[in-house]
Amino acid sequence: MNASGPTDSTRILPFGDAAIAEAAALIKARAVVAVATETVYGLAADATEPVAVAEIYAAKGRPAFNPLIVHVLDLHMAHRLGEFDSRAEALATAFWPGPLTLVVPRRAGSGIAAITTAGLDTIAIRVPAHRAMRALIAKSERPLAAPSANRSGAISPTRAAHVQASLGGRIPLILDDGPCEQGVESTIVHEVDGTTRVLRHGPIGVNALLSTIQQGAGERWQSIPGVERFDPGLGGFEARIEAPGQLASHYAPTKPLRTGAIYAEPDEWMIGFGPIFGDASLSRTGDLKEAAARLFDLLHQADASDKARIAVAPVPGEGVGTAINDRLRRASHPR
Q1: Cα–Cα distance between 266 and 276 in angstroms, integer?
Q2: Amino acid 314: pLDDT
Q3: Residue 46 vs residues 27, 42, 66, 98: alpha-carbon distances, Å
Q4: Which residues contact 90 (CB under 8 A, 6 or more apart)?
Q5: Segments in the chain below pLDDT 50
Q6: 20 to 30 Å CA-CA from 173: which of 52, 116, 234, 272?
Q7: pTM over 0.85
């Protein structure tokens, strides 16, 4: 699929058997399609076909060193692609299907194209819970490489309209199944060589992960500098990209973004939270799950407003608030 063209060349079809059949046929023809998941909309292609995966990178303008998450139907399918130790197995059993990505050693002979894993000896795997993505995997009978369905580094899409605005003319089809429930990308856990690390915060929090891992694993639990104990002075765990979402500037609007704001400057469109209302609110009741679900949608609204800049009210750094603040930090990072 050519990475340029008129926006109206991208069709939007509502979820249903006919739409899934058409999308699966495109997948088998080595094309890419956008599809709803429980986290954000994904841009899916056959993970075993290097030409198809290259179309993802072309459509997104994504750096080739940034690996992709491979979506599969169940743990049995995942076992054919990666090697799971006892803790990876426990995490998969507890949280799949769901918004957890596990980075594990890539299994020899998996058939996954090297471009999918960016040449790494690990592979990022997720079993999604959303009916649209699950139906597409089942119908296409392929493991699907699927990053967020937006241009690289831009605001992630939680509605079909967001995908059309970002990738219209670059892909043939968008499977529309309404707004995404979670609203932020999956938690990514790296489980290799007896050490567990969080590479990206998401809907599943660290405490839930820790409680699932067997007794005694805590002493081997690590966190990459900049994720669990972020210190701007550290500069960067970004030097080696091991999973999606680790670039310093990511999920970014086109306008400058200020976080921790308690009021808006005259040229700012304000995203509120709790008692700080703003032009629109992530959650007036202070509900962090509601805030996560609305985050990218409101960033899209703010970016499309007539104000020159964006301000976001403080969000508590607990539970999924950790993931929200991670996305806001990267969205505000200078490009």
Answers
A1: 16
A2: 97
A3: 6, 13, 17, 21
A4: 212, 213, 214
A5: 1-5, 215-219, 223-240
A6: 116
A7: no
